[in-house]
Write a structure and sequence with these properties.
- The chain has about 300 residues and is of the alpha+beta class.
- It has 2 domains: about 20-100, Alpha-Beta Plaits; about 140-300, Jelly Rolls (Sandwich), CATH 2.60.120.
- Helix content is about 40%, strand content about 25%.
- It has helices spanning about 30-45, 85-100, 120-140, 150-155, 215-220, 240-250, 255-275, 275-300; strands spanning about 20-25, 60-65, 70-80, 160-165, 170, 180-185, 190-195, 200-205, 210, 225-230, 235-240.
- The protein is globular.
- The longest helix has 23 residues, at about 275-300.
- The chain has 8 helices and 11 strands.
């Protein structure tokens, strides 16, 4: 044979798997331990088609370039030898979106490029257009219905763009310390809970304009359900710090917010416990004062 070929060994009672390497560069300004942790977590906690769970994928810093970036490799085992390039592409998207959510950009080779800089007036116009689009999105969020135009503008400027690859866990049941609200601007996400018996129970499918995570944002409570990206998805994320100034300037917002939180939480409990209409109404009335007190305590009102 004149061409190169690869011989794969097969161990008795072991699957045929091929190790693959996906390369990427990140500036050395970012600690390698952080890069490795983010990338490994993004690919190990979800099921990616044709990627083996044993051995688990792992990320390694392979080189440190004199140009100031680190050369990394995500190593994984391919379980179906045919879709090699498509699986590499899926891994790359998971890596890129995971790093992007953390504000880390991939490094590229430095080149001498001449760019004509846009004037400041044009740049400001683009920024204002983006803010207006974000305000339009926020107006559709029931939780923010009592906000004034100025308050919505303040929130719009604090939103963070968060992309997730298909299959990524956006929110995990029982997680604490994640005081974030997510608003979907593209794609779909599935809401589910893990039952006592270990089974997974699907509750809802969310799409563009839907939001989730409001209870943790406003009260600091643990996540009551998990949310996973059903497709590639793009979201805005709003954190507690963005809300604090508005809540303290106008504490009356807390009352309206508590009504909405109780209603949405009771609807979730109704789906889980099959409550009838009367039982649901009683539950909403009982919880309102408790949730309101929790919001005020959480925001120091």
């Amino acid at each position: 044979m004149k061409n190169k070929f690869l011989v794969l060994g097969r161990r008795t009672d072991q699957p045929v798997q091929l190790r693959r390497w996906v390369w990427f560069n990140v500036s050395m300004d970012v600690a390698p331990t952080r890069v490795v942790s983010i990338v490994e977590r993004s690919v190990q906690e979800i099921d990616i088609a044709n990627v083996a769970k044993n051995p688990l994928p792992n990320c390694v810093l392979m080189e440190m370039d004199e140009k100031g970036y680190g050369r990394y490799a995500l190593r994984y085992w391919l379980t179906d030898l045919a879709p090699d390039d498509p699986t590499d592409a899926s891994i790359r998207w998971h890596i890129m979106s995971a790093l992007q959510r953390q504000g880390i950009r991939l490094a590229i080779e430095e080149r001498d490029i001449h760019i004509t800089k846009e004037n400041e007036k044009h740049e400001e116009a683009l920024r204002q257009r983006e803010v207006m689009l974000r305000i339009k999105t926020l107006r559709k969020v029931e939780l923010l219905s009592q906000m004034t135009d100025e308050e919505l503008k303040t929130l719009a400027e604090r939103l963070k763009y968060m992309p997730f690859a298909k299959g990524s866990v956006i929110m995990r049941q029982g997680a604490t310390g994640q005081h974030w609200l997510f608003i979907i601007i593209k794609g779909e996400a599935e809401v589910f809970v893990d039952t006592v018996g270990g089974a997974r129970r699907s509750l809802n499918v969310l799409s563009k304009g839907n939001f989730f995570g409001e209870m943790s944002l406003m009260t600091g409570s643990p996540r009551v359900a998990s949310v996973v990206a059903r497709t590639d998805i793009e979201c805005y994320r709003l954190d507690k710090e963005a809300f604090e100034g508005i809540m303290r300037a106008r504490p009356a917002i807390a009352d309206e917010v508590s009504h909405i939180l109780v209603m949405r939480r009771s609807q979730l409990d109704s789906a889980l416990q099959n409550l009838d209409g009367e039982a649901l109404h009683t539950e909403i009335h009982h919880r309102h004062s408790e949730v309101l007190a929790t919001i005020k305590r959480f925001f120091g009102l």
